[in-house]
Design goal:
The protein is an alpha+beta fold. The protein has two helices and five strands; from the N terminus they run βαββαββ. A five-stranded antiparallel β-sheet has the order 4-1-3-2-5, covered by helices on one side.
């Protein structure tokens, strides 16, 4: 069942910045203000053709779970949106994601 169809996963994008260093600072700031973000893995992806790096969090069980986190984050003054990713572990363009900051391993 479902053979040939990748499961849609989601990331929540928290911002886009001009350097990897700014991504790391933005992650630290966002995670300290909104502790629920720390339950998810931060990732960074370079925007192709631009000098921008996206800050995203991944690790959601479903797209609606990502939407709930983003809605809660917005209610507390954050800015975000949900991006669908297929397959898990790749960027929306099918390229590998790079981790924005070292996280704890389970």
């Amino acid at each position: 069942a479902g053979q040939g169809k990748a499961k849609v996963r989601a990331v929540v994008q928290l911002g886009a910045f001009q350097s990897k260093g700014r991504v790391a600072v933005a992650w630290k700031t966002a995670a300290s203000k909104y502790g629920q973000l720390r339950r998810y893995a931060p990732v960074s992806g370079k925007v192709e053709g631009a000098n921008l790096y996206r800050l995203m969090v991944q690790g959601f069980a479903s797209v609606p779970d990502a939407q709930r986190l983003c809605a809660n984050y917005r209610r507390q003054g954050g800015v975000c949106f949900v991006r669908a990713v297929v397959p898990q572990g790749t960027s929306p363009l099918g390229k590998p994601l790079q981790y924005a900051a070292a996280g704890r391993r389970a």
